[in-house]
């Protein structure tokens, strides 16, 4: 890789660190090519990306960004996983690490907050943005549904009372 290519790579990585909401750093030593392709596919399906870059270039790209706290994690064969959704990359990384023990999560960053491996795992258990939006819409729609149920309930109760009296009269006759 010549100097111009390194500059382009550092610029691209700097853009990643300034625009994404979460970055996860992990060791991938021992993973096969097929497993790495599987990880990339899972990340892509979740709206996240995985990138393997030289640690030295990553450290240069991290300078002056809010994710600079992960500089110390960049030793050995590392990869970075990142996404705009703060839950997507950690969720896929943690699930993949459970399945393949060769992927070891070292930590990460969410904005200026440094993440430990445990905090990445706890972030992975949170619902995604889409799930939160669905819950919010459900909460907004729920009161209207309850009002509709309450307005029809008295009529239904009245009909059951009349039916019970009619049944009682049939038995008495």
What does the main sheet amount to?
5 strands, antiparallel
Alpha carbon gyration radius: 27 Å
Order of helices and strands: HEHEHEHEEHH
Strand tally, please?
5
* Class by SSE composition: alpha+beta
**CATH classification, class level of the largest domain:** Alpha Beta
The name of the CATH topology of the largest domain is Alpha-Beta Plaits
Give the overall shape: elongated
pLDDT average, as an integer? 86
In DSSP terms (H or I, runs of 4 or more residues), the helix count works out at 6
Low-confidence sequence ranges: none
* Major sheet strand order: 2-3-1-4-5
Q: Determine the fraction of residues in helical runs and give it as a percent range.
A: 55-70%
By CATH, the architecture of the largest domain is named: 2-Layer Sandwich
Count of separate structural domains: 2
Measured by DSSP, the beta-strand proportion falls in: 15-25%
Terminal Cα span: 100 Å
Would you give an account of this structure?
By secondary structure, the chain is α+β, with helices and mostly antiparallel strands. The chain has two domains: 124 residues, Ribosomal protein L10, N-terminal RNA-binding domain (Alpha-Beta Plaits, 2-Layer Sandwich); 47 residues. The protein contains six helices and five strands, in the order H-E-H-E-H-E-H-E-E-H-H. The protein has a five-stranded antiparallel beta sheet with strand order 2-3-1-4-5. A hairpin with a 2-residue loop joins strand 4 and strand 5. Helix 1 packs across helix 3, helix 2 runs antiparallel to helix 4 and helix 4 crosses helix 5. The radius of gyration is 27 Å and the shape is elongated. The chain starts with a helix and ends with a helix. The relative contact order is 0.14. The mean pLDDT is 86.
């Amino acid at each position: 890789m010549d100097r111009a290519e390194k500059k382009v790579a550092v610029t691209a990585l700097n853009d990643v660190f300034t625009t994404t909401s979460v970055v996860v750093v992990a060791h991938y030593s021992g993973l096969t090519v097929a497993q790495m392709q599987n990880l990339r596919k899972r990340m892509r399906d979740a709206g996240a990306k995985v990138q393997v870059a030289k640690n030295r270039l990553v450290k240069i790209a991290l300078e002056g960004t809010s994710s600079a706290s992960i500089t110390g994690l960049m030793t050995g064969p590392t990869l970075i996983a990142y996404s705009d959704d703060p839950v997507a990359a950690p969720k896929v990384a943690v699930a993949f690490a459970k399945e393949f023990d060769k992927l070891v999560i070292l930590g990460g960053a969410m904005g200026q907050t440094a993440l430990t491996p445990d905090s990445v795992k706890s972030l992975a258990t949170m619902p995604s943005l889409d799930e939160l939006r669905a819950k919010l819409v459900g909460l907004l729609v729920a009161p209207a549904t309850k009002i509709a149920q309450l307005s029809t309930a008295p009529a239904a109760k009245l009909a059951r009372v009349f039916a019970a009296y009619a049944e009682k009269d049939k038995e008495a006759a």
